Automatic annotation (TrEMBL):
It catalyses: Preferential cleavage: (Ac)2-L-Lys-D-Ala-|-D-Ala. Also transpeptidation of peptidyl-alanyl moieties that are N-acyl substituents of D-alanine; [GlcNAc-(1->4)-Mur2Ac(oyl-L-Ala-gamma-D-Glu-L-Lys-D-Ala-D-Ala)](n)-di-trans,octa-cis-undecaprenyl diphosphate + beta-D-GlcNAc-(1->4)-Mur2Ac(oyl-L-Ala-gamma-D-Glu-L-Lys-D-Ala-D-Ala)-di-trans,octa-cis-undecaprenyl diphosphate = [GlcNAc-(1->4)-Mur2Ac(oyl-L-Ala-gamma-D-Glu-L-Lys-D-Ala-D-Ala)](n+1)-di-trans,octa-cis-undecaprenyl diphosphate + di-trans,octa-cis-undecaprenyl diphosphate + H(+). It comes from Candidatus Roizmanbacteria bacterium CG22_combo_CG10-13_8_21_14_all_35_9. It is found in: Cell membrane. Keywords: Carboxypeptidase, Cell membrane, Cell shape, Cell wall biogenesis/degradation, Glycosyltransferase, Hydrolase, Membrane, Multifunctional enzyme, Peptidoglycan synthesis, Protease, Transferase. The lineage of its organism: Bacteria, Candidatus Roizmaniibacteriota. GO terms for biological process: cell wall organization; peptidoglycan biosynthetic process; proteolysis; regulation of cell shape. In the C-terminal section; belongs to the transpeptidase family. This is Penicillin-binding protein. GO terms for molecular function: penicillin binding; peptidoglycan glycosyltransferase activity; serine-type D-Ala-D-Ala carboxypeptidase activity.
Length: 704
């Protein structure tokens, strides 16, 4: 035992000497050499300088620096050395603490890394390419360095981050091993120095193959799978020795960011990451070009996840948000307690409604759907159902609420609210007659209405209520596509980045959005013109029970409350929409006033319904994850998503609402009698701008 301790101590001091050589003496050697070259060149051009004085000052600087370092080291070295764990403890200590995710009422949704399923496997029993995939993507110089790759590692990290936007770090496999096995996840210079010392120390104790074997048995691959053996069983149902090249490449790409590259959460990113590993193997000579190309076009196939989890789409959305804020290590190993905004009772009811309703319309070739429930006044997410069944292959784990889909006509209220801001009123007469827009460099654009008819002169209220396309396109032409994009972005739409991609069809759903963004944008209308970002947590505690983050709603005034009030009134006006939807559609909830809008894309690939009250906002989408078209019977926009929306909203209003509450009329809104004695609302000062013409209620004319 004494000899073993002495052996470790000797190796430690050798390591300290090596670190000193690399981090202290070597830079001074470079400095001295640079000064020597500079002095020689100055002599060559006969420049007179007090060279002895410069040399003396350099010597004083070096001496003073070394003395200072020695004094500091003498005072702190004992405590620093004492705090260093021994590499002999790799695999024995530093197991992470599990993070718990709860709903808003304290019900457990998921426990991250509660158990570490770890089955050691010998490197000799694995195919060569299992180790090669990891080396290729994590540390191509693994067999050539002595534990750290100071310059190449830093340059690699900077290049990957700046050029390729990858999350690849500058640490070697040895550094990653000691960091995961022996150190805390904190990001400090002290921890980094410890990591470097321990990496060099580890390389003196173990062989390269031993280090690589420990790494493969130690690192997390996502969920409770620690080590390559359990990762193989988790994702492919097989032992690591039976993995194919493509499967090994997928697993090798996971440790850098298990959630980001998870084939369950983000299959597209997982496939891209796998192919990145394969490309690295080819460039480093591990595989031939033909095998690289063949492997990259192979399908990504994993077995369904087997884990106890509630509200899985929301849980992994939360996990991703946590990782963005705290970092992966803190989430996976920090023992956080996350109290989310989700209400599990509402969540489970929404899941059940979605399954039941989709089963009834399966004959319309509608196989999937998604539901998002928020509280407009706070931005809290109350329910997130990302698909019909999270565990259904191949698309169940894909979260539609965060995916980009075309919104159809459900985007129109956002555009019309901009029109009100630019001087339009709910009584402004719009023209629903044939029109062709000539677009430079493109084919002429001729919008049509879903019913194949034209409706003549019609007030804005009825154009929006019945979702007529032609008046919406004419209005967008007047308010401007560029201004609409800027306005929608301010309201919460984050996906319209390249303005050159969009034209007048944008108001009919020609630009992809996410359900999360639509909830935020409609939330401005539902919250009297104030915007609140969607929130997933109420509070977060550390492992000691201290609150380290607490949600405090912060609202921003985006539009006049009068505009949101008028748009909400139009969307809740069952009389105004009856030409298109009839007097008794699924958009109506007896006993309650609810604002609601539908949307269906022309190709019938997306069908939406979005509705809200002061208490709740519900977004529903139905379609197919493989992007195939649904049955044309969905043309009306109330066959697919609307019945689901109606049941969810009815459940919320009947069980959680304080009665049929509606918005109080803002001081900026005035009322005027129009249309056969019906009232109309105006922003104060615009009530005399548009006359309330009765000619707008003419009978629709068929398309010629």
């Amino acid at each position: 035992m004494i000899f073993k301790s002495l052996y470790y101590l000797v190796n430690f001091f050798i390591t300290i000497g090596e670190v000193t050589q690399r981090l202290i003496i070597f830079p001074f050697q470079i400095l001295t050499r640079a000064l020597t070259i500079l002095i020689r060149r100055l002599k060559a051009i006969k420049v007179r300088l007090p060279l002895p004085e410069i040399s003396l000052r350099v010597k004083y600087f070096i001496t003073g620096s070394l003395v200072t370092l020695i004094i500091v080291f003498a005072n702190n070295s004992y405590l620093f050395i004492k705090s260093l764990p021994s590499p002999s403890n790799i695999g024995k200590t530093n197991y992470p603490l599990s993070t718990h995710i709860y709903d808003r009422n304290g019900k457990l949704l998921y426990e991250i890394y509660h158990e570490q399923n770890r089955t050691p496997v010998s490197l000799k029993k694995l195919p060569n390419y299992v180790a090669q995939t990891t080396i290729a993507i994590e540390d191509k110089d693994f067999y050539r360095h002595n534990g750290i790759a100071l310059f190449s590692g830093i340059f690699r990290a900077i290049k990957e981050m700046m050029i390729h936007k990858n999350l690849q770090g500058g640490s070697t496999i040895t550094q990653q091993l000691v960091k995961a096995a022996l150190l805390t996840p904190e990001r400090t210079w002290e921890r980094k120095i410890k990591e470097i010392i321990l990496a060099l120390w580890t390389e003196r104790i173990y062989t390269k193959d031993q280090i690589l074997e420990m790494y493969l048995n130690q690192v997390p691959y996502g969920g409770s799978a620690y080590g390559i053996e359990e990762a193989g069983k988790t994702y492919f149902g097989k032992s690591a020795k039976d993995l194919t090249l493509e499967q090994a490449a997928l697993l090798a790409g996971l440790p850098q960011a298990p959630s980001l590259y998870s084939p369950y959460i983000n299959p597209k990113a997982a496939l891209e990451r796998r192919n990145e590993v394969l490309e690295a193997m080819y460039k480093q000579g591990y595989i031939k070009e033909s095998l690289n190309l063949k492997s990259q076009i192979s399908n990504l196939e994993v077995i369904p996840p087997k884990t106890a989890i509630r509200a899985p789409h929301f849980v992994f959305y939360t996990k991703s948000q946590l990782e963005s804020y705290f970092g992966i290590s803190k989430v996976e190993e920090g023992g956080l307690k996350v109290y989310t905004t989700l209400d599990l009772d509402i969540q489970e009811q929404a899941e059940q409604i979605l399954r039941e309703k989709l089963d009834k319309i399966n004959y319309l070739n509608v196989t999937n759907g998604a539901i998002l429930v928020t509280r407009p006044s706070t931005g809290e997410i109350l329910a997130m159902v990302g698909s019909k069944d999270y565990f259904e292959q191949p698309y169940g784990a894909f979260n539609v609420t965060t995916a980009q889909r075309q919104p159809g006509s459900s985007i129109k209220p956002i555009m019309y609210s901009l029109a009100l801001q630019k001087g339009f009123t709910a009584a402004t007469i719009l023209d629903d007659s044939p029109v062709v827009f000539k677009i430079p460099g493109a084919s002429p654009y001729q919008p049509v209405n879903y019913d194949g008819k034209y409706h003549g002169k019609i007030p804005l209220r009825y154009a929006l209520g019945n979702s007529y396309n032609i008046p919406a396109v004419r209005t967008l032409e007047k308010v401007g596509v560029s201004d609409f994009i800027d306005y929608a972005s301010k309201m919460g739409i984050s996906t319209w980045q390249d303005k050159s991609r969009y034209g007048l069809s944008l108001t009919l759903g020609g630009g992809e959005v996410t359900m999360i963004d639509m909830a935020e944008a409609f939330g401005v209308l539902a919250n009297n013109g104030y915007k609140l970002p969607e929130s997933y947590f109420t509070k977060i505690e550390n492992s000691n029970g201290q609150i380290i983050r607490e949600y405090k709603p912060f609202k921003i005034k985006e539009i006049d409350s009068g505009i949101s009030y008028i748009i909400s009134d139009i969307l809740s006006d069952n009389f105004a929409r009856q030409w298109a939807f009839g007097p008794s559609s699924s958009l109506e909830i007896p006993g309650y006033k609810v604002a609601v809008k539908t949307g269906t894309t022309n190709d019938k690939r997306d069908n939406w319904t979005i509705g809200y009250t002061p208490d709740f906002l519900v977004v529903v989408w139905v379609g197919n994850n493989d992007n195939t078209a649904m049955n044309p019977y969905l043309t009306s926009g109330i066959t697919g998503a609307s019945p689901i929306w109606n049941r969810v909203m009815s459940y919320l209003l009947n069980n959680y609402s304080n009665g049929s509450k509606w918005y109080a009329k803002p001081d900026s809104v005035v009322e005027k009698t129009c249309y056969f004695g019906r009232r109309e609302y105006f922003i104060k000062g615009t009530e005399t701008k548009d006359r309330c013409s009765q000619e707008a209620l003419a009978t629709p004319t068929p398309k010629p």
